[in-house]
Design a protein that fits this description.
The protein is of the alpha/beta class. Helix content is 24%, strand content 22%. Strands 1, 2, 3, 4, 5, 16, 17 and 18 form an 8-stranded mixed β-sheet that branches. Strands 6-15-7-8-11 form a 5-stranded parallel β-sheet, with helices on one face.
Length: 358
Protein backbone atom coordinates (compact mmCIF):
# COMPACT_ATOMS: atom_id res chain seq x y z
CA UNK A 1 0.00 0.00 0.00
CA UNK A 2 1.41 3.39 -0.98
CA UNK A 3 1.47 6.12 1.62
CA UNK A 4 2.02 9.35 -0.25
CA UNK A 5 1.27 11.99 2.36
CA UNK A 6 -1.21 14.41 0.77
CA UNK A 7 -2.26 14.28 -2.86
CA UNK A 8 -4.32 16.88 -4.73
CA UNK A 9 -6.78 15.89 -7.43
CA UNK A 10 -10.22 16.91 -8.65
CA UNK A 11 -12.60 14.26 -7.30
CA UNK A 12 -12.56 11.41 -4.79
CA UNK A 13 -15.22 8.70 -5.12
CA UNK A 14 -15.70 6.66 -1.93
CA UNK A 15 -17.19 3.25 -2.60
CA UNK A 16 -17.06 0.96 -5.64
CA UNK A 17 -20.51 -0.55 -5.58
CA UNK A 18 -23.19 0.18 -8.17
CA UNK A 19 -23.37 3.92 -7.47
CA UNK A 20 -19.61 4.44 -7.19
CA UNK A 21 -18.82 2.62 -10.42
CA UNK A 22 -21.56 4.52 -12.23
CA UNK A 23 -20.07 7.82 -11.02
CA UNK A 24 -16.57 6.73 -12.06
CA UNK A 25 -17.82 5.78 -15.53
CA UNK A 26 -19.43 9.18 -16.03
CA UNK A 27 -16.37 11.01 -14.68
CA UNK A 28 -14.32 9.25 -17.34
CA UNK A 29 -16.81 10.27 -20.02
CA UNK A 30 -16.24 13.92 -19.11
CA UNK A 31 -12.53 13.49 -19.83
CA UNK A 32 -11.27 13.07 -16.26
CA UNK A 33 -8.61 10.39 -15.90
CA UNK A 34 -8.52 7.72 -13.18
CA UNK A 35 -5.63 8.07 -10.75
CA UNK A 36 -4.74 11.50 -12.14
CA UNK A 37 -7.89 13.62 -11.97
CA UNK A 38 -10.03 11.35 -9.80
CA UNK A 39 -9.65 8.25 -7.68
CA UNK A 40 -12.09 5.56 -6.56
CA UNK A 41 -11.52 4.19 -3.05
CA UNK A 42 -13.11 0.97 -1.83
CA UNK A 43 -12.68 -0.70 1.53
CA UNK A 44 -13.76 -4.15 0.28
CA UNK A 45 -11.02 -6.68 -0.54
CA UNK A 46 -12.34 -7.39 -4.05
CA UNK A 47 -14.76 -6.06 -6.69
CA UNK A 48 -18.46 -6.59 -6.12
CA UNK A 49 -19.51 -3.98 -3.59
CA UNK A 50 -21.87 -5.37 -0.95
CA UNK A 51 -22.92 -8.14 -3.33
CA UNK A 52 -19.73 -10.08 -2.58
CA UNK A 53 -20.99 -10.65 0.98
CA UNK A 54 -24.41 -12.06 0.10
CA UNK A 55 -25.18 -15.56 1.39
CA UNK A 56 -24.46 -18.43 -1.03
CA UNK A 57 -28.06 -19.60 -1.31
CA UNK A 58 -29.12 -16.20 -2.71
CA UNK A 59 -28.76 -17.21 -6.32
CA UNK A 60 -28.87 -14.72 -9.16
CA UNK A 61 -32.34 -15.93 -10.14
CA UNK A 62 -33.69 -14.91 -6.71
CA UNK A 63 -32.40 -11.34 -6.90
CA UNK A 64 -35.19 -8.75 -7.12
CA UNK A 65 -33.75 -6.99 -10.15
CA UNK A 66 -30.17 -6.06 -10.96
CA UNK A 67 -29.89 -3.10 -13.28
CA UNK A 68 -26.88 -3.13 -15.59
CA UNK A 69 -24.12 -0.58 -15.08
CA UNK A 70 -23.87 2.15 -17.73
CA UNK A 71 -22.05 1.13 -20.88
CA UNK A 72 -21.94 -2.64 -20.26
CA UNK A 73 -24.82 -5.07 -19.99
CA UNK A 74 -24.87 -8.10 -17.71
CA UNK A 75 -25.85 -10.96 -20.00
CA UNK A 76 -25.89 -14.74 -19.93
CA UNK A 77 -25.76 -15.06 -16.14
CA UNK A 78 -26.65 -18.48 -14.74
CA UNK A 79 -29.74 -17.97 -12.51
CA UNK A 80 -28.63 -20.88 -10.29
CA UNK A 81 -25.20 -19.39 -9.58
CA UNK A 82 -24.77 -17.41 -6.32
CA UNK A 83 -25.50 -13.73 -6.88
CA UNK A 84 -22.30 -12.89 -4.99
CA UNK A 85 -20.29 -14.63 -7.71
CA UNK A 86 -22.30 -13.37 -10.69
CA UNK A 87 -22.31 -9.72 -9.72
CA UNK A 88 -18.77 -9.65 -8.34
CA UNK A 89 -17.50 -11.07 -11.63
CA UNK A 90 -19.54 -8.50 -13.53
CA UNK A 91 -18.20 -5.60 -11.45
CA UNK A 92 -14.66 -6.91 -11.86
CA UNK A 93 -15.04 -7.08 -15.65
CA UNK A 94 -16.58 -3.61 -15.63
CA UNK A 95 -13.70 -2.06 -13.69
CA UNK A 96 -11.23 -3.63 -16.11
CA UNK A 97 -13.11 -2.69 -19.27
CA UNK A 98 -13.21 0.99 -18.34
CA UNK A 99 -9.84 0.95 -16.55
CA UNK A 100 -11.27 2.52 -13.40
CA UNK A 101 -8.19 1.60 -11.31
CA UNK A 102 -10.08 1.19 -8.03
CA UNK A 103 -7.88 1.39 -4.92
CA UNK A 104 -8.61 -1.41 -2.45
CA UNK A 105 -8.72 -2.23 0.33
CA UNK A 106 -8.65 1.38 1.52
CA UNK A 107 -10.34 2.59 4.68
CA UNK A 108 -11.61 6.17 4.81
CA UNK A 109 -11.38 7.46 8.35
CA UNK A 110 -12.76 10.98 7.97
CA UNK A 111 -13.57 13.74 5.50
CA UNK A 112 -12.81 17.24 6.79
CA UNK A 113 -12.49 20.80 5.61
CA UNK A 114 -9.11 21.17 3.94
CA UNK A 115 -6.97 24.04 2.74
CA UNK A 116 -7.74 26.44 -0.07
CA UNK A 117 -11.37 25.43 -0.45
CA UNK A 118 -10.52 21.76 -0.86
CA UNK A 119 -11.69 18.80 1.19
CA UNK A 120 -9.37 16.60 3.23
CA UNK A 121 -10.02 12.86 2.84
CA UNK A 122 -8.04 10.88 5.40
CA UNK A 123 -7.47 7.28 4.35
CA UNK A 124 -5.36 4.25 5.18
CA UNK A 125 -3.15 5.00 2.17
CA UNK A 126 -2.65 8.70 2.79
CA UNK A 127 -4.55 11.98 2.57
CA UNK A 128 -6.38 13.11 -0.55
CA UNK A 129 -7.18 16.77 -1.17
CA UNK A 130 -10.01 16.90 -3.75
CA UNK A 131 -12.17 19.76 -4.93
CA UNK A 132 -15.25 17.55 -4.85
CA UNK A 133 -16.39 14.30 -3.25
CA UNK A 134 -18.84 11.66 -4.45
CA UNK A 135 -19.85 9.45 -1.53
CA UNK A 136 -21.14 6.02 -2.54
CA UNK A 137 -20.71 4.00 0.64
CA UNK A 138 -24.16 2.40 0.74
CA UNK A 139 -25.52 0.72 3.87
CA UNK A 140 -24.13 -2.83 4.16
CA UNK A 141 -21.50 -1.81 6.72
CA UNK A 142 -24.12 -0.48 9.14
CA UNK A 143 -26.56 -3.28 9.97
CA UNK A 144 -29.34 -2.08 12.24
CA UNK A 145 -29.95 -4.06 15.44
CA UNK A 146 -32.99 -2.81 17.35
CA UNK A 147 -32.80 -2.92 21.13
CA UNK A 148 -35.40 -4.82 23.10
CA UNK A 149 -35.51 -5.59 26.83
CA UNK A 150 -33.76 -8.85 27.61
CA UNK A 151 -31.64 -8.88 24.45
CA UNK A 152 -28.51 -9.86 26.38
CA UNK A 153 -30.23 -12.65 28.28
CA UNK A 154 -31.12 -14.83 25.28
CA UNK A 155 -29.22 -18.12 25.47
CA UNK A 156 -29.64 -19.05 21.82
CA UNK A 157 -27.96 -17.63 18.73
CA UNK A 158 -28.60 -14.13 17.40
CA UNK A 159 -27.40 -12.89 14.05
CA UNK A 160 -28.20 -10.24 11.46
CA UNK A 161 -28.81 -10.61 7.72
CA UNK A 162 -25.26 -9.34 7.21
CA UNK A 163 -23.98 -12.59 8.79
CA UNK A 164 -26.62 -14.98 7.43
CA UNK A 165 -24.78 -18.06 6.06
CA UNK A 166 -27.70 -19.77 4.32
CA UNK A 167 -30.22 -22.32 5.64
CA UNK A 168 -27.97 -25.35 6.22
CA UNK A 169 -26.70 -24.19 9.63
CA UNK A 170 -30.24 -24.05 11.02
CA UNK A 171 -31.34 -27.62 10.33
CA UNK A 172 -33.61 -28.88 13.08
CA UNK A 173 -33.70 -25.54 14.93
CA UNK A 174 -36.58 -23.23 15.78
CA UNK A 175 -35.85 -19.91 14.09
CA UNK A 176 -37.53 -16.54 14.49
CA UNK A 177 -37.01 -14.02 11.68
CA UNK A 178 -37.54 -10.38 12.65
CA UNK A 179 -38.22 -7.89 9.87
CA UNK A 180 -40.76 -7.32 7.11
CA UNK A 181 -38.51 -6.54 4.14
CA UNK A 182 -37.33 -8.58 1.18
CA UNK A 183 -34.46 -10.19 3.11
CA UNK A 184 -36.80 -11.38 5.86
CA UNK A 185 -39.15 -13.11 3.43
CA UNK A 186 -36.22 -14.65 1.54
CA UNK A 187 -34.78 -16.03 4.77
CA UNK A 188 -38.11 -17.49 5.81
CA UNK A 189 -38.75 -19.21 2.49
CA UNK A 190 -35.28 -20.76 2.56
CA UNK A 191 -35.43 -21.83 6.19
CA UNK A 192 -38.89 -23.38 5.91
CA UNK A 193 -37.49 -26.51 4.30
CA UNK A 194 -34.60 -26.88 6.76
CA UNK A 195 -35.49 -25.49 10.19
CA UNK A 196 -37.70 -27.44 12.57
CA UNK A 197 -40.04 -24.45 12.78
CA UNK A 198 -40.01 -20.81 11.72
CA UNK A 199 -41.73 -17.73 13.10
CA UNK A 200 -42.04 -14.31 11.49
CA UNK A 201 -42.29 -11.11 13.52
CA UNK A 202 -42.69 -7.60 12.09
CA UNK A 203 -43.46 -4.17 13.53
CA UNK A 204 -46.10 -3.48 10.90
CA UNK A 205 -48.27 -5.86 8.87
CA UNK A 206 -46.42 -6.61 5.62
CA UNK A 207 -47.82 -5.15 2.41
CA UNK A 208 -47.71 -7.48 -0.59
CA UNK A 209 -47.82 -5.82 -3.98
CA UNK A 210 -50.08 -7.35 -6.61
CA UNK A 211 -49.68 -6.75 -10.32
CA UNK A 212 -46.97 -5.05 -12.35
CA UNK A 213 -44.73 -2.38 -10.89
CA UNK A 214 -44.21 0.08 -13.72
CA UNK A 215 -42.32 3.30 -14.17
CA UNK A 216 -45.12 5.44 -12.76
CA UNK A 217 -45.33 3.40 -9.55
CA UNK A 218 -41.55 3.47 -9.27
CA UNK A 219 -41.42 7.26 -9.54
CA UNK A 220 -44.11 7.61 -6.89
CA UNK A 221 -42.25 5.31 -4.48
CA UNK A 222 -38.93 7.10 -5.01
CA UNK A 223 -40.65 10.46 -4.47
CA UNK A 224 -41.77 9.36 -1.00
CA UNK A 225 -38.22 8.45 0.00
CA UNK A 226 -36.84 11.60 -1.64
CA UNK A 227 -39.16 13.81 0.38
CA UNK A 228 -37.64 12.56 3.63
CA UNK A 229 -34.13 13.26 2.36
CA UNK A 230 -35.09 16.77 1.29
CA UNK A 231 -36.36 17.40 4.81
CA UNK A 232 -33.10 16.21 6.34
CA UNK A 233 -34.59 13.04 7.85
CA UNK A 234 -32.81 9.67 7.80
CA UNK A 235 -33.80 7.94 4.56
CA UNK A 236 -36.09 4.95 4.45
CA UNK A 237 -35.40 2.18 1.98
CA UNK A 238 -37.22 2.26 -1.35
CA UNK A 239 -38.69 -1.19 -0.63
CA UNK A 240 -40.32 0.19 2.52
CA UNK A 241 -42.70 2.17 0.33
CA UNK A 242 -43.02 -0.21 -2.62
CA UNK A 243 -44.21 -3.24 -0.67
CA UNK A 244 -43.20 -6.86 -1.26
CA UNK A 245 -43.70 -8.32 -4.76
CA UNK A 246 -46.24 -11.12 -4.74
CA UNK A 247 -44.62 -13.68 -7.05
CA UNK A 248 -45.34 -17.42 -7.31
CA UNK A 249 -42.81 -18.36 -4.61
CA UNK A 250 -44.29 -15.85 -2.16
CA UNK A 251 -47.82 -17.05 -2.92
CA UNK A 252 -46.82 -20.64 -2.16
CA UNK A 253 -45.13 -19.59 1.06
CA UNK A 254 -48.26 -17.75 2.16
CA UNK A 255 -50.47 -20.72 1.34
CA UNK A 256 -48.17 -22.99 3.35
CA UNK A 257 -48.24 -20.66 6.37
CA UNK A 258 -44.54 -19.77 6.11
CA UNK A 259 -45.39 -16.07 5.89
CA UNK A 260 -47.93 -15.96 8.71
CA UNK A 261 -46.83 -12.88 10.58
CA UNK A 262 -46.83 -12.24 14.31
CA UNK A 263 -46.87 -8.75 15.84
CA UNK A 264 -43.67 -7.44 17.35
CA UNK A 265 -42.83 -8.97 20.73
CA UNK A 266 -42.28 -6.83 23.82
CA UNK A 267 -39.22 -8.47 25.32
CA UNK A 268 -36.66 -11.21 24.82
CA UNK A 269 -36.33 -14.02 27.32
CA UNK A 270 -33.61 -16.58 27.99
CA UNK A 271 -35.41 -19.06 25.75
CA UNK A 272 -37.21 -16.89 23.20
CA UNK A 273 -39.56 -13.92 23.17
CA UNK A 274 -42.64 -12.73 25.03
CA UNK A 275 -45.57 -10.40 24.45
CA UNK A 276 -47.30 -8.14 26.96
CA UNK A 277 -50.42 -10.33 26.89
CA UNK A 278 -48.46 -13.26 28.32
CA UNK A 279 -47.81 -15.17 25.10
CA UNK A 280 -44.33 -16.66 24.70
CA UNK A 281 -42.46 -18.47 21.94
CA UNK A 282 -39.31 -20.49 22.56
CA UNK A 283 -36.72 -20.43 19.78
CA UNK A 284 -33.11 -21.44 19.24
CA UNK A 285 -32.22 -18.60 16.87
CA UNK A 286 -33.28 -14.98 16.38
CA UNK A 287 -32.39 -13.74 12.90
CA UNK A 288 -32.59 -9.95 12.67
CA UNK A 289 -33.57 -8.98 9.12
CA UNK A 290 -34.02 -5.42 10.29
CA UNK A 291 -32.22 -3.53 7.57
CA UNK A 292 -29.34 -1.12 7.47
CA UNK A 293 -28.48 2.53 7.95
CA UNK A 294 -26.41 4.76 5.69
CA UNK A 295 -22.66 4.30 6.23
CA UNK A 296 -21.74 7.98 6.44
CA UNK A 297 -19.98 8.39 9.78
CA UNK A 298 -16.76 9.41 8.01
CA UNK A 299 -18.58 12.57 6.85
CA UNK A 300 -19.31 13.66 10.45
CA UNK A 301 -16.54 16.33 10.61
CA UNK A 302 -18.26 18.24 7.77
CA UNK A 303 -21.39 18.71 9.91
CA UNK A 304 -23.78 17.86 7.12
CA UNK A 305 -26.54 16.40 9.28
CA UNK A 306 -29.77 18.25 9.94
CA UNK A 307 -31.59 18.32 13.31
CA UNK A 308 -33.77 15.47 12.03
CA UNK A 309 -30.72 13.19 11.92
CA UNK A 310 -30.21 12.87 8.16
CA UNK A 311 -28.29 14.77 5.51
CA UNK A 312 -30.49 17.07 3.47
CA UNK A 313 -29.89 16.28 -0.18
CA UNK A 314 -31.22 17.96 -3.33
CA UNK A 315 -30.74 15.68 -6.31
CA UNK A 316 -27.41 14.27 -5.11
CA UNK A 317 -25.90 17.43 -3.60
CA UNK A 318 -25.54 17.86 0.16
CA UNK A 319 -27.32 21.13 0.90
CA UNK A 320 -24.83 22.12 3.59
CA UNK A 321 -21.80 21.61 1.31
CA UNK A 322 -22.15 21.73 -2.47
CA UNK A 323 -18.80 20.00 -2.95
CA UNK A 324 -20.24 16.78 -1.50
CA UNK A 325 -22.59 14.50 -3.43
CA UNK A 326 -24.27 11.39 -2.04
CA UNK A 327 -25.17 8.60 -4.43
CA UNK A 328 -26.83 5.36 -3.43
CA UNK A 329 -28.35 7.32 -0.55
CA UNK A 330 -32.09 7.44 0.12
CA UNK A 331 -34.02 7.50 -3.17
CA UNK A 332 -31.00 6.30 -5.17
CA UNK A 333 -30.40 3.21 -3.02
CA UNK A 334 -31.89 0.81 -5.60
CA UNK A 335 -29.71 -0.54 -8.40
CA UNK A 336 -31.38 1.56 -11.09
CA UNK A 337 -31.44 4.59 -8.79
CA UNK A 338 -27.72 4.20 -8.07
CA UNK A 339 -26.95 4.17 -11.79
CA UNK A 340 -28.88 7.35 -12.39
CA UNK A 341 -27.45 9.05 -9.33
CA UNK A 342 -23.91 8.40 -10.51
CA UNK A 343 -24.63 10.27 -13.72
CA UNK A 344 -26.63 12.97 -11.93
CA UNK A 345 -23.79 13.70 -9.51
CA UNK A 346 -21.16 14.08 -12.20
CA UNK A 347 -22.97 16.95 -13.95
CA UNK A 348 -22.83 19.43 -11.04
CA UNK A 349 -19.36 18.18 -10.08
CA UNK A 350 -18.16 19.01 -13.59
CA UNK A 351 -19.72 22.48 -13.37
CA UNK A 352 -18.03 23.01 -10.01
CA UNK A 353 -14.65 22.04 -11.39
CA UNK A 354 -15.10 24.39 -14.32
CA UNK A 355 -16.12 27.32 -12.11
CA UNK A 356 -13.54 26.99 -9.36
CA UNK A 357 -9.79 27.31 -10.21
CA UNK A 358 -7.67 24.28 -9.45
Amino acid sequence: MNNFGTRELDVVVIGAGQAGLSAAYHLRRTGLRPNRDFVVLDHAPAPGGAWQYRWPSLTYGKVHGMHALPGMELTGADPDRPSSEVISSYFDAYEQRFNLLVHRPVEVGAVREGDGGRLRVETSEGVYSPRALINATGTWDRPFWPRYPGLETFRGRQLHTVDYPGPAEFAGLRVMVVGGGASGTQHLMELAGTAAETFWVTRRPPVFREGPFGEEQGRAAVALVEERVRRGLPPRSVVSVTGLPLNDAVRRAREQGVLDRLPMFDRITEDGVAWADGRTVDVDVILWATGFRAAIDHLTPLRLREPGGGIRVEDTRAVRDGRVHLVGYGPSASTIGANRAGRAAVRPVTRLLESVPA
